[in-house]
Amino acid sequence: MSTTRQHPPGDLGREPEGAGADSPVPAERQWRTLSLGQASGIVPMARDFARQALHDWGWLPASSADRRAAAEDVLLVVSELVTNACLHAEGPEELRIGRTPKVLRVEVVDRGAGQPAPRTPHRAGRPGGHGMFIVQRLCLDWGVQRTPESPGKTVWAELAAPA
């Protein structure tokens, strides 16, 4: 499996299929998964799914403006990644949201072969092309994981948990 940015094994995200029992996986990590393959109204469904996860994990209802902004950032990133998969990658297959006490990770699995990237130069006044720029600005990190000889990819983004 390849990724555009390297992280220590077990840092965040799902372990690769076939990972050994000695792979370090944080015990506090929690995952939610939503299948999107044949669904309609995918973007609102993904946002509702993410909103419910944030509610279950105590991010919502927000007790402060900072916590509310953090939750809104997550919902925006979910929207952007799922929309990009719809527009540029033959549609999303799955949305995964995982959290540790410090980081929330959003993953969108799609069937596309393309490589997402922020449009450069970014032109704020022009319509379209803002999705990955927004993701880049809001997230601690983001990247793409591919499995060799398998179609599609996983586009992931990590956001800081609210203080």
Topology:
Blueprint: E1 2-3, E2 30-35, H1 42-56, H2 65-88, E3 92-99, E4 103-110, H3 131-138, E5 141-146, E6 153-160
Antiparallel strand pairs: 1-5, 2-3, 3-4, 4-6, 5-6
Helix pairs in contact: 1-2, 2-3
Instruction: Give the total of beta strands.
Output: 6
Roughly how many Å is the radius of gyration?
15 Å
Count up the helices: 3
Shape: globular
Biggest β-sheet description: 6 strands, antiparallel
Structure classification: alpha+beta
- End-to-end distance: 33 Å
Rounded average pLDDT: 82
Instruction: State the share of residues found in helices, binned by percent.
Output: 25-40%
Reading the helices and strands in chain order gives EEHHEEHEE
- What are the low-pLDDT stretches, counting only 5+ consecutive residues below 50? 1-25
Percentage of residues in DSSP E strands: 15-25%
What is the strand arrangement across the widest sheet? 1-5-6-4-3-2
List keywords for this structure.
alpha+beta
A few lines on this structure:
With 163 residues, the chain is of the alpha+beta class.
